[in-house]
Amino acid sequence: MGRKIQLIAGPCSAESRKQLLDTASMLSGLGLDYFRAGLWKPRTRPGCFEGVGSRGLKWLAEVREKYGLKIGTEVAGALHVEECLKADVDMMWLGARTTVNPFMVEEIACALQGTDKYIMVKNPVNQDVSLWIGTIERLMSHGISNIGIIHRGFSTFGGTLYRNAPQWHAAIEVRSRFPELTFICDPSHMSGDRRFIPELSQKAMDLGFDGLMVEVHENPEAALSDNLQQMTPDEFSTLVSGLKIRENSSEDVKYNNALEHLREEIDEIDAEIIGALSRRMKVSREIGRYKSSSNVSIIQPSRWEEVIAKVLDKGTGEGLPREFLLRIFNAIHEASVSEQNKIN
Ligand code: PEP
Ligand code: MN
After folding, report:
1. Residues lining ligand 1, judged by CB closer than 6 Å?
2. How buried is residue 295: exposed, middle or buried, by Cβ count under 10 Å (0-12/13-18/19+)?
3. Which residues surround ligand 2, an ion (CB under 5 A)?
4. What is the pLDDT along the chain (344 residues), one digit of tens a residue?
5. pTM for the model
6. Least enclosed by CB within 10 Å: which of 49, 82, 144, 159?
7. How far apart, in whole angstroms, are the C-alpha atoms of residue 120 and residue 309?
8. How many Å lie between the centroid of ligand 1 and the Cα of residue 157?
9. Are the C-beta atoms of 144 and 109 separated by less than 8 Å?
10. Looking at ligand 1, which residue's alpha carbon is closest to its atom 1?
């Protein structure tokens, strides 16, 4: 048994009293921390089901009453917040289409001023980490400290396997800014397809996320929104019991000794890398001075092609991924060119 993770599940949208209560009944007993259901649905195009609105609040209250589950929904403006506070909703989240808009975030933060309710922030639709961080900061500046962060992936132009690209490194960057906040993954909106939810959930656990928000519907095929990505309660139960939860640390002395040793080795290698980069940059500056005094242009495409071919050949021969080598050496080249540009 691993550490306890935070579990949030429920339908994308509340559709009817019966659908909500049936789903909650099937989910009760699975150890949920919060039952979710969207009431006001931010649909990208008009003409789709846009949610049942405020009348769903009493159905959610019934779920809490009947099944002892805490309840949560999405808020996208001050009016939603006021309705939720009146109904004493336990958790509210700001969706991806709200986090992109600082005006809306500010309005919501004002309406929530000083609340101790659990307020969750999804990443913005696009991969703009500053907007995500800014939303959390705005909430904090309004005296809100019980905050959770939700990673639901980023929209990309062009086809990808998942509906929203995970770009885990961006999420990890935000997490490192707010290590005290609960950080969870929403594999439903990330995948867009329930078949991929288990692999994404496991990946989130392997990366040390604190929990999951998963869309679950008593009859996903008939769902009025996001029908492809919602799971049945049975599938959700199988998902949760199959998760391998990693600990944040271990007490095991052998493990800790081995890790300490290896980390020292990593620190030494990092120092060598910095030393090599700095030596390379010095040589590059010297080349820059020669180019400048002989009036030769900085960028020499044929030379760069030669360099990249050599490092790819050597690097892939050492088992390093080609993509990784390209990223690293393109960054080195860019920095070199920019240094040479400073010489005139
Ligand atoms: C949702 O959780 O139902 C939702 C609309 O999500 P997102 O804001 O991530 O698109
Ligand atoms: Mn949804």
Report:
1. 12, 38, 42, 74, 95-97, 122, 152, 189
2. exposed
3. 12, 226
4. 568 999 999 999 999 999 999 999 999 999 999 999 999 998 888 888 999 999 999 999 999 999 999 999 999 999 999 999 999 999 999 999 999 999 999 999 999 999 999 999 999 999 999 999 999 999 999 999 999 999 999 998 877 889 999 999 999 999 999 999 999 999 999 999 999 999 999 999 999 999 999 999 999 999 999 999 999 999 999 999 999 998 888 899 999 999 999 999 999 999 999 999 999 999 999 999 999 999 998 888 899 999 999 999 999 999 999 999 999 999 999 999 999 999 87
5. 0.85
6. 159
7. 47
8. 19
9. yes
10. 12
